[in-house]
Design brief:
alpha+beta; 4-stranded antiparallel sheet; 36% helix
Length: 88
């Protein structure tokens, strides 16, 4: 099943993320290698984050997102995950 993530960054995300960026990217790389993360990234103005996941259930994706260092350190200020139907 596929899922879409939509969230927001804190106002000073580009500065605040610096000490956590390597851990964040390493975690995303592991998720990508495991096949659960399809893509993830910020909007051009770094105000929002968008991602696509493929997993057995919503709880798996929410656990990955809430376990991310950006969530735990307040770089992501809100996240919502929705089941998604890929029409095309």
């Amino acid at each position: 099943m596929k899922f879409v993530l939509w969230g927001t960054y804190c106002a000073d995300a580009l500065e605040r993320r610096t000490p956590y960026r390597d851990e964040h990217l390493a975690g995303l790389q592991r998720q990508k290698e495991e096949g659960v993360l399809l893509t993830l990234g910020p909007t051009v103005d770094a105000s929002h984050v968008f991602g696509l996941y493929e997993a057995d259930d919503l709880e798996t994706v929410e656990s990955l997102v809430k376990g991310d260092i950006y969530w735990r350190q307040g770089i992501w200020t809100a996240v919502e995950v929705y089941p998604w139907i890929q029409a095309f």
